[in-house]
Batch of 2 targets.
Target 1
Amino acid sequence: MHKPKISFIICVYNMGNTLETAIKSVLSQTYKNFEIIIVDDGSVDSTAEICDKYKEKYPEIVKVKHQENKGVASARNTALGMVTGDYVFFCDADDSCGNTMLEEMVKAIVNHNADIVAVNVNKVTDGHVERLDLIKEEEIYSGTNHDKVFYSFYGDRRTIATATHSKLFRRDLFDTITFIDGFVYEDKRIMHRLLDSADTIVFCNKGEYFYIMNDNSITHARSLKTERDDYIATVDRYDYFISKRKEEKLIQLATYDLVDRLISYYSQGERVIDNSEKKELVNQLRKCMNEPLFKKDKKYASKHMKINIFLLSPKLYTTLFYKGNRFS
């Protein structure tokens, strides 16, 4: 059996309290043909010392790069430039991998000549493991079945589809696709492109990735910037599916998702978003409503009243219907 070399990428900023757990989980893999690339993105805690300790202890396996703080996207692009493996796996510095995870994923690569392999994600909160089992049996997306993978962006499996963690990617997929510097939701901006560029994608029901719930992580520390970046990423995915003329059901799902994200972003930032941006948001919403596939769908009727109230008076909509956090 061909044994592809795997490059684990761990990008880290001030995660000295969790980094060793992530590294040890990689080192404990039963499949051994791998390297670990750690990019320290300007940490000021014990992170740098931990990185160097493992580089000295495992010089044939661990590579370390220290750089000025530039953000996750920049750190990942730096790491991709250091890769020597056939496939890449992104492991967050506060997460961990089950010890047979890589072995099971490599089997899927070999058996199906896969370009991307995704594995089940377990959620860990205060030490309690919630086994989501979002992948109940092996799924293969290729040929005429390929585009059905995009449905995983919507519903309870969106974590599997949207995040770059918990996946193996063929290295050359990143020859033309890179992370966008300065952008918080860097995964969401590129995952649809990576999946679309892959000929064969496998969702593997064996092996486990442990996603540690961390209140200090970027995705949990919500701000106007994170909400705006989330909205921009949603627009980007919507425009991509429209431009690629994907099937009707997928465009409908992308439209619903964009409408919900747009209204949520507007409602949260209503007090601080300037008038020109508000106008752009309203125009984008009108564009979605005029999408024929959205207008003819039965679900449109149930959203019709609230959306039209929003278009009539976003402030009134926010007062009547929005119960979430608002920035000021």
Target 2
Amino acid sequence: MTTVRAACVQFQARPEKSENVALMAPLVAEAAARGADVVLLPEKWNAWMDGPRLRPLAERLDAGETVDAMAGWARDHRINLIGGSIALVGDDDAVHNVSIAFDRAGERVAAYSKMHLFDVDVGGFSYRESDGTAAGSDPVVVELDGVVSSRPTSRWSPGWPTGRCSCGRARSRTRRSCWRPASTAVRAGWTSRATATR
């Protein structure tokens, strides 16, 4: 049996990408210092824009301010890191909402482009993530420290009053739960352990 300690970082993104990256660094360090084996970041934590405003903030999978920072955090703190999701420009030149998984050496081991974009009409309000983001086409499975998870992603939304973390769908013999403080302040939300059988 493998035991994995996971930390979900709760974060309220600001308009400036560089500021978000700088503010996230000590939160990842704190999670690592508390003994996290895997640290999960929220969706669109580095740039919360949508539509055409998101494109100038998008990076490439092989390099960029955010991609390089996440690889460095994983390597420097010897943690597995699932980079929530960030905007990346794909080979098709479209912007994708991508979750990247890094191993303890800071190597990219998986990348998942969000397949089901959030398009909704509710009470006269319309939101179309698809207006500026292309959908991915393939599910992804990643193994980190012997634990298998599909769809490597974490997400947070201010619409959820207690905050939520989605650790991805783990193999059926994996127990996981995520706990988050009922606050939208920038701070690390700590999760309970996930235990898996290989």
